[in-house]
Amino acid sequence: MPELLTGTQMQALERAAMARGEARGTALMETAGKQVVESIYSTFPDSSAKPDRSALILCGPGNNGGDGFVIARLLATRGWQVRVVLAGERAQLAGDAAGNCQLWGELGDILPPDPEAVERALPRPDLVVDALFGTGLKRPLSTALRALLSHALDIAHHSVSVDILSGICADSGRWLGSLPPLGPVDLTVTFHRPRTGHMLSDGGTATGRLVVAPIGLPQAAPVPPGAGPVVGLVTAPAGLGDKAAAGHKYSHGHALILSGGPGRSGAARLSARAALRVGAGLVTLAAPSAAHPEIAAQITALMLRRLDSPEELDRLLADPRYGALCLGPGMGPDARTRLLLRHALAHGRAQVLDADALGCWSDAPEDFFALTRGTETVLTPHGGEFARLFPDLAARLRAPATTGPAWSRLDAVAEAATRSGCCVLLKGADTVIAAPDGRRAVHAALRERRAPWLATAGSGDVLAGLICGLLARGLACYEAACAAAWLHVEAARAFGPGLIAEDLPETLPRVLAGLSAATPGA
Q1: Phi-psi bin for 484: left (phi > 0), alpha (psi -120 to 50), beta?
Q2: Which GO molecular-function terms appear in the entry (predicted)?
Q3: pLDDT band at 522, cuts 50/70/90?
Q4: Which of 45, 162, 287, 381 has the highest count of CB atoms within 10 angstroms of its CB?
């Protein structure tokens, strides 16, 4: 799985490479500036080809500002009319940033960080480059710098950020301060690997098109010890589109989906259909006998069993061929669901708990966690369910982020996984997944992978079914949750506008076939 980096981890990688003699600060800064300029030309070819093109470069007092001076110099040598604003005093600059400021001074002047001065010097630039603070920002923008950046973004035809939009915490993606976030920019150019903040919260929407450019650091270099836990970026899972040639239905897993009563079976049927489509060899719906007529009228490849009491669930689970369970969709947040969940957990199967299986414990989350700790369980809350089970963690996410690194969705879900003792998937455009052993990942349905059509009733039930089907196929909880998150979004993207939840399972064969075609030798 590809890795995302925090600002601290990127700085640690750079320091380690320079200590080993594999990189020099001057060369890293020059390469970063060149990569931004090349990305500008490839992203905005019309503006770049204009004979009278102009650019406003906002430089901060650190290395991000040093990148900005390189960009200004390279654009000026290509014939751009360039104006540079420095946020701070030249005397504050040090090292490579100071050297590149001096090189720029041989070509042009430096404006004060004043919107009126900018307006007089360059009233309508084709391009603004935000090189104020990047990934090292630890505090909110001052009122003056916020006004400057806001003005620059308003007047420019195109906008570019170096590393990340200034004002956003590169670790959490949260806007620092109590005022509304600025942006989005059209293009963000970052280096070596994406940052977690590009995928989370405000950063997910403010980043615009994201280009990850090499700057000469060794690609295989691991994050140095002590720089914080590594975060994975969920991508296409390998091997899910294929089944063993000599397998039979039981060798591909048997999933058991628990259903609600009459008039409430639709959610479980969606989950069951998804589990079957994702490759489980058999899928059984267990429902109250009163709901059987309506369920039987709607299903063909699924099997149906009676579930009128917890004891009947015990008898079902006495069959060891049931490898995975899904509890919650359409069951109702009531005492029956609680009791069934207690019995299910006692049998030690892999399971996904969604919707009402979470809601029925909102008044007693610690009792719930006492049951889930140490089990092979995936919890799949949306934001509201997460807040009811983990109110203190949700409150920290709602509070304004005043300093960086700010508390993030990753931090919250990692703590939730530790507290509950099982895998937690917090749903959203920036879905976050964490395991109790410390592994964590982000699946970002953003930019080229955006899938707004998933905001439809029943899509979460399908996700729960996908996880259950993958658990039945033998995937571990964390791997099943990551793979299901990707498949869920990919099916929505493959179908497109007009999607309803029923379309997701029926689109899966096309997605799985694409995975098979992408697997060498498949």
Answers
A1: alpha
A2: ADP-dependent NAD(P)H-hydrate dehydratase activity; ATP binding; metal ion binding; NAD(P)HX epimerase activity
A3: very low
A4: 162
Number of domain units in the chain: 2
Q: Is the entire prediction scored with pTM above 0.90? A: yes
Tell me what pLDDT residue 136 has. Answer: 84
Do 171 and 65 have their domain in common? yes
| Domain membership of residue 102 as a residue range | 3-233
Predicted confidence at residue 240, as pLDDT, reads 83
Please state the residue numbers annotated as binding site for (6S)-NADPHX: 63-67, 134-140, 163, 267, 330, 382, 461
For residues 179-208, give the mean pLDDT. Answer: 96
Binding-site annotation, residues for AMP: 427-431, 460
Co-location of 369 and 467 in the same domain:
yes
In 346-401, where do the E strands start and end? Answer: 350-353, 377-379
Q: Of residues 233 and 91, which shows the higher confidence score?
A: 233
- Same domain, residue pair 227 and 329: no
Instruction: Tell me the CA distances in angstroms from 186 to 40, 101, 110, 158, 197, one per residue in order.
Output: 10, 26, 25, 6, 16
Mean pLDDT (whole number) for 20-34: 95
Q: Which two tokens stand for residue 215?
A: 């700057």
Q: What is the CATH number of the domain that holds 471?
A: 3.40.1190.20
